[in-house]
Design a protein that fits this description.
- The protein is globular, with a radius of gyration of 18 Å.
- It contains nine helices and eight strands.
- Strand 3 and strand 4 form a beta hairpin.
- It has about 240 residues and is an alpha/beta fold.
- It has a single domain, classed as P-loop containing nucleotide triphosphate hydrolases (Rossmann fold, 3-Layer(aba) Sandwich).
- The strands form two sheets. It has a five-stranded parallel β-sheet, sandwiched between helices. It has a three-stranded antiparallel β-sheet with strand order 3-4-5, covered by helices on one side.
Length: about 240
């Protein structure tokens, strides 16, 4: 890949349905940077766990499955991919079975330690390769990349997030009920915020952006302005003269 206009790491955190994936991908694409969806990595490991039919209460067995999983995450924002071995699992990891189990699997300390190491390797390689990467998840600014040049924490009302999630599921051909999705959003919030290791929370130096009343373009404008104010977009030599 060519060198990007972004220098360093932009961490985008927040609960489900705040628009993290869409905005992070478009932000990365706009700067010619790389992109990493850490949530997809946890979902892929969860799929591997479900396929292994291990007890979700057996943390040792879950960690063993995670260690064996051949997880490969692509970093092209135009075509983000996630594979288990050679199998493309991008669609399957968004299904209801994985959604119902991912909080339990991602709360296992051994799984988080394993994936955080993997994520840091991907981030370091991307910065060395192209200069910049946008990383989204729930613990990027607090745990995965605490030294990120820009940390953003996206929020939105639970109702707005449920409407977005339901619309996404419907567009993807999955059964979608706003009431069921709202209950799931609230359940995920409780589990993600209360887990013992790397709980969902805003980093002290993160900029909070409420997306409840903003469309994607509006959020993207705010994040682009933040990138430029932080000096993460180098000014070309000719522009300095």
């Amino acid at each position: 890949m060519a060198r990007s206009e972004l220098r360093g790491v932009v961490a985008v955190d927040g609960p489900s349905g705040t628009g993290k994936s869409t905005v992070a991908r478009r932000l990365a694409a706009g700067f010619g940077a790389e992109y990493l969806d850490t949530g997809a990595m946890y979902r892929a490991v969860t799929l591997a766990v479900l396929r292994s039919a291990v007890d979700l209460a057996d943390v040792d067995a879950i960690v063993e499955v995670a260690e064996r999983a051949e997880l490969v995450s692509g970093t092209d924002p135009e075509r983000p991919t996630v594979h288990l071995g050679v199998e493309d699992v991008a669609e399957e990891i968004r299904g209801p079975e994985v959604t119902a189990a991912v909080s339990a699997v991602s709360a296992v300390p051994g799984v988080r330690e394993l994936l955080v190491r993997h994520q840091r390797r991907i981030i370091d390689a991307a910065v060395a390769r192209t200069g910049g990467i946008v990383v989204e998840g729930r613990d990027i600014g607090t745990t995965v990349a605490p030294d990120a040049g820009l940390k953003v924490f996206l929020t939105a009302s639970a109702e707005a997030r449920a409407l977005r999630r339901a619309a996404q599921d419907s567009a993807a051909g999955r059964d979608a009920s706003v009431d069921v999705t709202l209950a799931d959003v609230q359940r995920r919030d409780r589990l993600d915020s209360s887990r013992a290791v790397s709980p969902l929370r805003r980093a002290e130096d993160a900029v909070e952006v409420d997306t409840t009343e903003l469309d994607v373009a509006g959020v993207l404008r705010e994040l682009t302005a933040l990138v430029e104010r932080r000096g993460l977009r180098p000014v070309p030599e000719r522009s300095r003269r």
